[in-house]
Each structure stands twice: as C-alpha cells, then as structure tokens.
Amino acid sequence: MNLVIELAALGVLAAMIFYVSFLFFTTFRSSQLIAEVAASEQQLFQTRVADILQKSAVERDKNESSWNGFRKFEVAKKEPEGGGICSFYLRPHDNRPLPPFDPGQYLTFRLDIPGERKPVMRCYSLSDSPKPEYFRVSIKAVPPPRDKPDVVPGLSSNFFHNEILEGTILDVRAPGGHFFLDTSKHTPVVLIGGGIGLTPVMSMLNQIIESGSTREVQFFYGVRNADEHVMKAHLEQVAAENENVTLHICYSSPSDDDVFGKDYQHAERVSVELFKKVLSSNNYEYYFCGPPPMMNSLFEDLRKWDVPEENINYEAFGPATVKKKKEADAATDTGTGAATEATFEIEFAKSGRKVTWNPDIGSILDFAEEHDVDIDFGCRAGNCGTCITAIKSGEVDYISEPGEKPEAGSCLACVSVPKGPLVLDA
Ligand SMILES: Cc1cc2nc3c(=O)[nH]c(=O)nc-3n(C[C@H](O)[C@H](O)[C@H](O)COP(=O)(O)OP(=O)(O)OC[C@H]3O[C@@H](n4cnc5c(N)ncnc54)[C@H](O)[C@@H]3O)c2cc1C
Fold first, then answer.
1. What is the pLDDT of residue 21?
2. What are the distances in angstroms from CA 337 to CA 92, 99, 331, 334, 367?
C-alpha cells in the first residue's frame, strides 16, 4: 500500500516538474519570439528610415544642383558601341556638381544644326546610373525609313554621330521624365529593352547593382542578332557577378555565327509567352522600352496575363502608341470618348484655317500636319516642350502624361486631343 502511495506521489511530483518546465519553456520561447519579432520590426523600421533619409538627401541634392533652361556640357568622350550606336559622356562645362537623377530619365538637347531654320530639340535617355562626374547617353543613328530610302536620314542622331566630337559643347536641359525605377522598393522587377530601348533599362540595372540591392532582376534584351547586340560584355559581367540578376538575350533572327546559349538565350522576340516559360509567376513590376510593335503587344499581353496596370511601366521613344490605343479602347468601351466620336471644329487662328476634327489622325500635332499647319515639334512624345501651343479657347485632353506640364492656357500638341471646339494660336 505504502509503495502505491509513494509511486502516486512520485507521479504527481513528476507531473508538477514537467508542468513547471513546460511553463518555463513556453515563457522563455515566447519572450524569445517577441524579441525576434521586435528585432525584425526594428530592422524593417531602420531600413525604411534609411530609405526615407536617402530619398530626401537625393531630393535635396537634386534641388540644389539641378538647373532651369539649358546648361552647357562638354562631350568628354565619344565611344562607338557597335550596332550603329554611339555613347556620349557629358561633363558640365561650369564644373559644378551634377544632380542625381532617377534611372530611366532622359536629357533634352537643343542642337544648332547647319541648314535648319530653328534649333532642333531631341530627348535621349541617360544610359548609365547616376554618377557625380558625368552623364551618358547612347544614340542610334536613324536611317531613312525602309519604304522611303531617298528621304534624309534622322537629323539629330546623325548629327550626333557625324558632327559631334569630343570637346563639342552642347545645350542640355536637366534630367526629366516619368519613366523611372522606384529605387526605394525591393520588389522583383522585369526590365525589358528592345533595340535602342535598352538605354533607360540599362540605367535602372546599373543603379540596382551599384546600390548593392539584392532585388531580383529579370533582364530581357531583344535585338535581331549579334550585329545589334550592344554593351554585351558589360551585361554578361553584371549577370555573372550578381546572382539576383538573370539575363535573357533574345535574338529574333540569329545569324549562323551566333552561338545559342553563349551569345543569346532565346531565339525569339521578347514576349509574354516567353515570360510565362521562364518566370516563376507574373508577380513582378515591369519596365519596358522598345519599338512600337513590341510596346503594344507587351502592354496588351501583360494585362491579359492579369498583371495590374500599376505594375506596368513603359516609355516610347516615338509617338506614344500604347497610351493612344488604351485611350481609344477606353473611349470605345464606355462610349464616353468625346474626342473620338464628336464632330466639331478646330480653328488654327494664325494660319486662318478651320477644320473638322478627325480623331483617327491622332494628336493635335498630327492633325495640324495633315492640314498643312506648321507647329514645331521635337520628341513627339510630350517630353521636350517644342510643340507647346497657346489655346485661345477650348480645352484638351492628354493621351499620354506629358513629361513637363505646360502652363495653363497652352497645350503640348503632340500628345493632346481636343475635348470639344478649340481655337489654337497656330
Ligand atoms: C524620352 C525619349 C528618350 C529617347 N531616348 C533615346 C535614346 O536613348 N537613344 C536614341 O538613340 N534615341 C532616343 N530617343 C529617340 C530620339 O529622341 C530621336 O527621336 C531619334 O534619335 C530620331 O531623331 P532624328 O532627329 O535622328 O530623326 P528625325 O529627323 O526625327 O527623323 C526620323 C525618321 O524620319 C525620317 N524622315 C525624315 N524626313 C522625312 C520625310 N520628309 N518623310 C518621311 N520620313 C522622313 C528620317 O529618315 C528618320 O527615319 C528618345 C526619344 C524620347 C522621346
């Protein structure tokens, strides 16, 4: 009997010890977990504070060292890249510091080209990450259109290639534009450059790796073949040295000398079908720049693949075709697109012309040209400001967000359409 009581007492004692140990362990583990959560929240908080501080320091530097109007830059180096592309390294002639810029932004140049009655304005994306010493742009010499081989080749691009030498002084506006990478984010990105559209995404890539960010980057570069494949060694080195960067070189028509797996990874154009094959999901932020057919198909197919519109960022080097199509589609869907369905008059006061608006022609600039009304233009993408036209009466809508908002009472003719009857000082 005594033995039974002793065993029972021992059992109770063991249970109590177990219970006390359990309480002790869970309390210890909870405080450990609380400490871990607190530490990770503190780290997150510190990262956010660092991001905000860095952002405000960058903003301060931008404000302090930016400029209004045009500033003189000297071409410090001119470097052929192959594929009809040449890079120009620009140093400020006044030797004052350069402002930082957001990777993806561009410079606007004012060129005095002999034989032209007015200065020629053109935009060129910054093709390297922000550097204190120089800006770099990379320019493709534009030939005549294939179906019009007899017309003059691209004015500004060929002037850069043929006439601009090391030591030439150029008039340059401060970096601008809305197509840029949000460098405070750490979310995965897909960067896509088609042909010369490589330039802004190259700046984004360089900024990511130079900042030490481990953000996942899937980098797609589409060209015809090795003849057009520029900055090859640099891209390969970046991919080899940064495991967060994956390079996808796409040749649409590789030549016999091009080596699959070495020179290029995909014998096809950059497309959403390709993304479906090589990306783990659609859950990325997309930034792309390239020729109009690529821009249109990527935008539409990314939307069809359920990529939210806020995750799709793009820039056209020519007329803003993606946006135009979006606006046209929206107007057709809702039936509310006044500019696309109404019949009303546009008056070009200086030229003494009144014409019925035709939405199929495109922007006010396209429409003016169609009717032989002379409006100066530069980029045809709402960026350079050359086509600013005073509005005498009426209102306009923008088919693409302008790089620089014009003053009230004027419009950027290349990216605007009338809302109703309009009188322009042109
Ligand atoms: C934001 C932005 C960033 C850009 N970034 C870059 C960049 O990084 N690198 C780059 O290389 N480009 C870039 N561009 C494009 C660049 O601004 C110019 O548009 C490009 O260099 C062509 O300009 P151009 O003066 O050489 O050609 P243009 O003189 O404008 O001629 C364009 C085409 O029209 C043809 N043409 C001329 N006259 C006629 C005629 N009468 N009839 C029919 N066709 C004619 C020409 O032969 C040529 O093929 C960018 C554009 C924008 C808007």
1. 67
2. 46, 41, 4, 7, 18
Domains of the chain: 70-143+154-176 (2.40.30.10), 189-317 (3.40.50.80), 338-424 (3.10.20.30)
Q: How far is the CA of 6 from the centre of ligand 1 (A)?
A: 98
Measuring CA to CA, how many Å separate 230 from each of 6, 11, 199, 249? 87, 79, 10, 11
Nearest atom in ligand 1 to 144's CA: 47
Q: What separation in Å is there between the alpha carbon of 391 and the centre of ligand 1?
A: 27
Task: Report the pocket of ligand 1 as residue ranges, CB < 6 Å.
Answer: 106, 122-125, 137-140, 142, 144-145, 148, 151-158, 177, 196, 199, 315, 317, 379, 381, 383
For ligand 1, atom 42, name the residue with the nearest CA: 151
Residue with CA closest to ligand 1 atom 31? 154
- Dihedral sign for Cα 210, 81, 319, 322, please: negative
How remote is the C-alpha of 230 from its chain's centroid?
A: 19
Residues of the chain with pLDDT under 50: 324-325, 332-340
Which numbered atom of ligand 1 lies nearest the CA of 120? 25
| 140 CA: nearest ligand 1 atom | 11
pLDDT of residue 307: 98
Predicted structure pTM score: 0.80
Burial, 12: exposed, middle or buried (Cβ in 10 Å; 0-12, 13-18, 19+)? Answer: exposed
CA separation for the pair 138, 334 (Å, rounded):
42
Q: What separation in Å is there between the alpha carbon of 318 and the centre of ligand 1?
A: 7
Long-range contacts of 262-269 (CB under 8 A, 24+ apart): 263/226, 263/229, 263/232, 264/226, 264/229, 269/222, 269/294
